[in-house]
Amino acid sequence: MRCKKCNSNNCIKKGVRINKQLFYCKNCKKYFQLEYSYQSYKASTNDFIKKLLKEGCGVRSISRILNISTKTVLSRMLKISKQIKIPYFNKFGCKFEVDELFIKIANGKSHN
Fold it and tell me: What does pTM read for this prediction?
């Protein structure tokens, strides 16, 4: 048995919850199950959320597509955002900052 968190094989059976076997990892000290019944606990859920965000889906549409609650989507988005590293651009010793600017003029034309 391999741990789903740290991928070590130092795991033991430790308890049963709702007729499902629980395992305990001695290295990372986390409990896990082999199979989860809820969609939000699956490891691939974060990848699906990332893909749907890149496609421009909103929080409610992601929750509807993945069949999980909007609060779960928001909490997963926060966890995913904390893993993003700020890119560092270094060209000829200069630092660059990127910002978007959108201007709407009175006659309705927009300029970027």
Answer: 0.52
